[in-house]
Amino acid sequence: MEDLTFRHTTLKRASGLKPTAIIGVVASGNLEVLVERVMPDAECLLEIRTAAEGFGDVWEAVVADFVERYSPGGLKFSINDGGARPDTVSLRLAQAARLMQEDDR
Amino acid sequence: MSVAHVDRQLPGETRAASSWYEASARERVRLLLDAGSFQEFIGPEARETSPHLRVFDLPEQFDDGIIVGCGKLDGSPVFVAAQEGRFMGGAFGEVHGAKLTGLLRAARDVKSAPVLLLLDTGGVRLQEANAGELAIAEIMRAVIEARSAGVKVIGLIGGRSGCYGGGGLIAGCCSALVVSEQGRIAVSGPEVIETNRGVEEFDSRDRALVWRTMGGKSRWLIGGADAFADDTVGDFRKAALKLLSSTADFGLDTLKAEQSRLEERLQSFGECPDALDIWRTEGVSDPRSIPALPADQFIALGDKIRRTSRDAR
Amino acid sequence: MTTWQKARTARDARIDAGAKVAKGKIVETGDVTRLLEAVIRPGDRVCLEGDNQKQADLLSAALLAVDISKVNNLHMVQSGVVLPEHLDLFDRGVAKKLDYAYSGPQSARIATMLFGGKIELGAIHTYLELFARYFIDLTPHVALIAAVSADRDGNLYTGPNTEDTPTVVEATSFKDGIVIAQVNEIVDKLPRVDIPGDRVHFVVKSDKPFFVEPLFTRDPAAITEGQILTAMMAIKGIYAPYGVRRLNHGIGFSTAAIELLLPTFGEKLGLRGKIASQFALNPHPALIPAIESGWVEQIHSFGSEVGMDDYIRARSDVYFTGPDGSLRSNRAFCQVAGLYACDMFIGSTLQIDLKGNSSTITTSRIAGFGGAPNMGSDPRGRRHPSEPWLQAGREADPDSTPALRRGRKLVVQIGETFGEKNVPLFVEKLDAIALAEKLKLDLAPVMIYGDDITHIITEEGIANLLLCRDAREREQAIRGVAGYTDVGRGRDKQFVQSLRERGVIRRPEDLGIDPLDADRSLLAARSIKDLVRWSGGLYAPPSKFRNW
């Protein structure tokens, strides 16, 4: 297992009121993303535990694109990864960001 | 506070028509209960993960593969637990088991709300063998204690991992079971039987054989499950509601009735070499047609020939 | 005096020698090896029918058992090297040289044997090339073939899996060769005659039916969201704008996803009748929902598929069937159909380089070509116009005189940027080149050449290579859909952005597709059982695909 942490400043706060959301499962080629609205508005944090070691630079690129695209200010993403491919990671991150935009029920 | 999950109308699909088999544990719980009623205990944000997996350099899941909580079913309070069959095959570990034991004990103490167990498991997690085995024993005890306190415990089985190993034992302790065609209930799985008894005894790659031996249709036909559901959340919900209203109270008489039901079953089918023979003995004129029958026709056929014993279990 | 009929005389001598172990044309199972020893000469070219699907397994075992003082150093000329026995022949010294087209299940062992010098390699062909050479310089002396049934005159019924048999028999029998058929049964009256008996010299009844693998069954349960996304892009970004009606599909999960999206996503876009109506394609179970929803007018097939017989029989408006009602497949004709009469090929591959060359070869596996290069190439001999073909030609060469401008076949590679075990689809250098160096081959085994490829689809977008005007544009267009692979991260971001503005690269959002909508609920069938339901119970999948 490898631990990776990425911290970014963001242009704006992630919209929505939802305090927390979770998507995905930990399985071969899949991952879970837990999102919590616990960061300052102009920051986001991603903490990753991955079963596929040695892909730090790919994660860095995936995360940078995600942050640029969704500007998830105020959110902390905690990820358990079963060795998902980068496109699956991008999809789950996007799904997680969209869930946080929904109104809290 | 509840943790959110993907909630949107799937194209061409209503909530009730969603496939149980395809859904994740979280989706099953959300779609099964009254909308917005679910409250999770020890949710993923609590990060109560397995203390063992890290030792084996394996990834954890924040909820350790099981969701426990309470909600409403048709307006009435229920406790609910759901295993995620895709995380480590839905297998029982120490934390996973403790969450379920705790839920069952809460139900025992509260007394007024039944428990829905959405089982989807290959059995005990190999990496947590001793803790997992202990968990199974504790859960079985907790199920019986809850039932003794007047709480109905209904198992719902129709997931990817089936209901095997210790899961099969727990299913055997429940007040009643709902199963779909995709569901499988057994203690020893196909590969285990083949490894121990040889491919002549059981060819685990012959999936038609696996399903007609352990699959939902066969289990329901011979009384191993109490209701048969089509593979939709709506059907599971309907079946669960029906069982909650029709399942008898638990006592020594129930156990005695269950004992004689099982003895009778052994007597009737003990000599049958294949499920096809069992179905024929049970009165199905064309047993080969059973696997292909759509759910409604299968239920109609089953209702005609099944021996029900409402006072057993 | 010059003799002009030496081969005929030699053939008659072989038949006479074989006749000693036969009763008429019929040979007992136990006598097959003796028959082969009687009719095969050392160094003969032998076609041991190994097709993509059906295998003359009894005859392979019998050939392996020959006395190698009598039969040795054979030159095997067969399209499929599929059974272990096909390679055991070389280990034993029965055979020495090999010309073939495809070796799927034996791809790892064949690589080892080629490296070890156990096999003298002629060439790896496409199906059509090998078939063509049967008539020019690789004509078999003996063909060992498989059929469903025979009558006592040697007439053969090959059934739904006719595949390569007519081609092999034509080349062998009309050039003084010997044809020996294994059949599942000998009957008084055949359902239909696929091979006339005067082309067949000996028939042996096998104790068990010839082996057929279900190669084209893709379980919808295994289709991923990523594959659904690329399938949505293919339909909306290529099938629709070009109006592709005549096409061939590869056998991967991405194209299975396309087949399962036609009746849902495709229907919603109003595309029924406008795209995907005529196919050169095996009877893919995944196409059943599209057929049942009225999408598909006609399918011609290379071979058949296990479990599809009753469905095909009941849908004769769609498939080619004989007077008996069962499927008639023919690999040679279907390959020609795919090459000349289809406007598009779409399929997956394992590696794509910066020029767009693609290959399924890795240094430890030599799977061969099969038919993909025939489908996935622009036929220079094509002369009939069609709108997709003309449009592709316009895009590639907008400035030339329309009446003199060739059209282009659409050759589309579809896949996810990372494959199994996170292996990247895009590479700087194909493994095929390393292999060619290691084996001292004149040609690297490239499945589809970069100049034939028109589009690449990944989850990141579609690259339209027809619109690229030079090598740099082409390379950046490929990098621009290569995702997070090293090749993709090596892109010139601004250049890629300019390609996107020109429509050379199109992202999902450029096509009006939200990746978050790529959901399994879009699939017309999500399980094999769903396919059975769609077929009205006519599709009978093999047990290994069942979960009921």
How would the blueprint of this fold be written?
The complex is a heterotrimer of chains A (105), B (313) and C (548).
Chain A: E1 2-9, E2 20-23, E3 31-36, E4 43-50, H1 56-70, E5 76-81, H2 86-101
Chain B: H1 25-32, E1 39-41, E2 66-73, E3 76-83, H2 94-110, E4 115-119, H3 129-148, E5 153-157, H4 166-173, E6 176-180, H5 190-197, H6 207-214, H7 216-221, E7 227-229, H8 233-246, H9 252-269, H10 275-281, H11 295-305
Parallel strand pairs in B: 3-4, 4-5, 5-6, 6-7
Antiparallel strand pairs in B: 1-2, 2-3
Helix pairs in contact in B: 2-3, 3-4
Chain C: H1 6-19, E1 26-27, H2 32-39, E2 45-48, E3 54-55, H3 57-64, E4 74-80, H4 84-92, E5 95-102, H5 107-115, E6 120-124, H6 127-134, E7 142-150, E8 156-157, H7 165-173, E9 178-186, E10 202-205, E11 211-212, H8 225-242, E12 246-249, H9 253-268, E13 278-280, H10 288-292, E14 298-300, H11 309-314, H12 331-340, E15 344-347, E16 351-352, E17 358-359, H13 372-375, H14 387-396, E18 410-414, H15 431-439, E19 455-458, E20 461-464, H16 471-479, H17 486-489, H18 493-501, E21 505-506, H19 528-534
Parallel strand pairs in C: 1-10, 2-4, 2-7, 4-5, 5-6, 7-9, 9-10, 12-13, 12-15, 13-14, 15-18, 18-19
Antiparallel strand pairs in C: 3-11, 7-8, 16-17, 19-20, 20-21
Helix pairs in contact in C: 1-2, 2-3, 3-4, 8-9
What do these coordinates show?
By secondary structure, chain A is an alpha+beta fold. In chain A, helix 1 packs parallel to helix 2. A five-stranded mixed β-sheet of chain A has the order 1-4-5-3-2, with helices on one face. Chain A is globular. Chain A is built from two helices and five strands, in the order ββββαβα. The termini of chain A are far apart. Chain B has eleven helices and seven strands. Chain B is globular, with a radius of gyration of 19 Å. In chain B, 40% of the residues lie in helices and 12% in strands. Chain B has a seven-stranded mixed β-sheet with strand order 1-2-3-4-5-6-7, with helices on both faces. Chain B starts with 24 loop residues before the first helix and ends in an 8-residue tail after the last helix. Chain B is of the alpha/beta class. By secondary structure, chain C is of the alpha/beta class. Chain C has three domains: 22-212, 3-Layer(aba) Sandwich (Glutaconate Coenzyme A-transferase); 215-226 and 244-342 and 520-537, no CATH class; 345-506, Glutaconate Coenzyme A-transferase (3-Layer(aba) Sandwich), CATH 3.40.1080. Chain C has helices at 6-19, 32-39, 57-64, 84-92, 107-115, 127-134, 165-173, 225-242, 253-268, 288-292, 309-314, 331-340, 372-375, 387-396, 431-439, 471-479, 486-489, 493-501, 528-534; strands spanning 26-27, 45-48, 54-55, 74-80, 95-102, 120-124, 142-150, 156-157, 178-186, 202-205, 211-212, 246-249, 278-280, 298-300, 344-347, 351-352, 358-359, 410-414, 455-458, 461-464, 505-506. In chain C, helix 2 crosses helix 3 (57-64), helix 3 (57-64) packs parallel to helix 4 (84-92) and helix 8 (225-242) packs across helix 9 (253-268). The longest helix of chain C has 18 residues, at 225-242. The radius of gyration of chain C is 24 Å and the shape is globular. The mean pLDDT of chain C is 96. The A-B interface holds A 1, 18-23, 25-27, 30, 32, 34, 36, 49-51, 78, 80-82, 95, 99-100, 102, 104-105 and B 1-7, 24, 26, 36, 44-45, 47, 54, 57-62, 84, 86-87.
